[in-house]
Amino acid sequence: MNPKWNGQFSCFDLVAKTDVCSRSVVRVRDLDVGGAAFVVMAGPCAVESETQLLQTAEAVARAGARMLRGGAYKPRSSPYAFQGLGMEGLKLLRKARRETGLAIVTEVMSEEDVELIAEYADLMQVGTRSMENYALLEALGQCGKPVLLKRGMTATIEDLMRSAQVIAMAGNPGIILCERGIRTFETATRNTLDIAAVPVLKAVSHLPVIVDPSHAAGVRSLVPVLARAATVVGADGLLVEVHPCPEQALSDGNQSLTFAEFRRMMTDLQPYLELQQAARELRPQLLAAGGAD
Ligand code: PEP
Ligand code: MN
């Protein structure tokens, strides 16, 4: 390990990796994130209607997703954009879980909403704009549900680790980190997917790490190839936007996959996931044979 990382992150003792600690597996409803299985969370950017959500939930479940994403409370860059259905959206997410068995991940924007959203969500999402909202992070410490912590768009890996430590110190060890692209000088993509953040986070932290290729790319044509990159660098899962009719989506239609595109992406990922799996199984043998770690 780069010795610099050790010194840099050891102060975040609850989330930093040490030579002796084992990797955390975060239990979300009946799923393990960070264990042997690669967990795909998929669904619309925002919950828009019952038909939109239920159709999407069924389609992504059939294609192999294990969790349904969908914002009921939406943080938007523009105050004029669709802000989400709020409470009604939460109820629709609960209905979709009942009908499909998918676990629910949805965003919580404010500490006042934590209790309410924890009644509906299986995984509490902290968005990029909230990563340094310490009042929210502290409230999530006592919410009784695991947290998906998205990297702030201008946050360093150290900043992300600090926010994870705040949640853990407040009493919640169930944290999944998410790389979703950062703001750089590059404007051809919506954000710049920092693919190196995945192996770095896995080296410096024991927490599971997933990738959101949708918000990184900003355009749907790039989503499958970025998802493939995520599997190859050892991510534990994906967060992907899917919509029945992306051209009519109330938010992030450009980066949302159609059902067919999502199915194709899931099929195309299979050989890469099998390679990853084989590499993981090979690892203990290499170590036993004195191979490189
Ligand atoms: C989202 O995943 O719904 C979202 C708003 O993403 P981000 O916070 O990464 O922009
Ligand atoms: Mn979105």
Q: Summarize this, please?
A:
This protein has 293 residues and is of the alpha/beta class.
Structural account:
The protein has an 8-stranded parallel barrel with strand order 3-4-5-6-7-8-9-10, surrounded by 6 helices. It has 293 residues and is an alpha/beta fold. Helices cover 39% and strands 14% of the residues. It has helices at 3-9, 50-62, 87-100, 114-120, 134-140, 157-169, 197-204, 213-217, 223-232, 259-288, and strands spanning 26-28, 31-33, 39-43, 67-69, 103-107, 123-126, 147-150, 175-179, 209-211, 237-241. The termini are close together. Manganese (II) ion is lined by residues 45, 215, 241, 251-252. The site of manganese (II) ion has 5 residues, from loops.
SS element count, helices: 10
Gyration radius over CA: 18 Å
Which term fits the overall shape? globular
The protein's oligomeric status is single chain
Largest sheet: 8 strands, parallel, barrel
What binds here, in terms of ligands, is: phosphoenolpyruvate, manganese (II) ion
End-to-end gap: 10 Å
Mean pLDDT: 94
Q: How many beta-strand runs?
A: 10
Summing up helix and strand content along with how strands pair, one would put the structural category as alpha/beta
Q: SSE string, helix = H, strand = E? A: HEEEHEHEHEHEHEHEHHEH
Share of helix, binned: 25-40%
Percentage of residues in DSSP E strands? 5-15%
- As residue ranges, the low-confidence spans are none
- Provide the spatial order of strands within the biggest beta sheet: 3-4-5-6-7-8-9-10
